[in-house]
Design a protein that fits this description.
alpha+beta; flat; 5 strands; 22% strand
Length: 161
């Protein structure tokens, strides 16, 4: 039998819910308010067919560009060939949730500003302080102490026969 090329083709596991999430959708998604400029994750809720995004957009993060009564407009970047396109889609609020992609960044901005304020209060030049993230770097060197020679075991490969 030939396979189908429908709108929801090959989404058996993609749209499947976890055992604890099955059944009626709670009221929480309907009570959320979205503003233009918010970052949102597009996650299709298989229990609601209206306003469901196409399967490509499931799990993607975008930015809200339009808000209507029951839906939000989301701009998502899509790679097509060798270029990136900005795709504008409208998705119902059941299929959208606030993204946590900027939490760490905003926390870092707040910490950096606090460092600058502390330096300014101390009278130092806050402009020259480095606020960039630094890689961890190599670990410190150390010497391994052994109680006796009996604990040291040499391992050699067995010759191939």
């Amino acid at each position: 039998m030939p396979h189908s090329f429908g709108y929801r083709a090959r989404t058996r596991h993609l749209y499947a819910k976890k055992p604890g999430d099955k059944g009626l959708t709670p009221i929480k998604p309907y009570l959320r308010s979205f503003k233009v400029g918010d970052y949102v994750d597009v996650v299709a809720d298989a229990a609601h067919h209206k306003g469901m995004p196409f399967k490509y957009y499931h799990g993607k993060t975008g930015r809200v560009w339009n808000v209507s009564r029951r839906a939000v407009g989301v701009v998502i970047t899509k790679v097509v060939g060798n270029r990136q396109l900005s795709k504008k889609i409208h998705v119902r609020v059941e299929h959208v949730r606030p993204s946590r992609c900027r939490e760490e960044f905003l926390k870092r901005v707040k910490a950096n500003q606090q460092k600058v304020d502390e330096r300014m209060a101390a009278g130092d030049d806050a402009v020259r302080t480095t606020r960039k993230r630094q890689p961890a770097g190599p670990r410190e060197g150390h010497t391994v102490k052994v109680k006796s020679d009996s604990e040291i075991e040499e391992i050699t490969p067995v010759p191939y026969l």
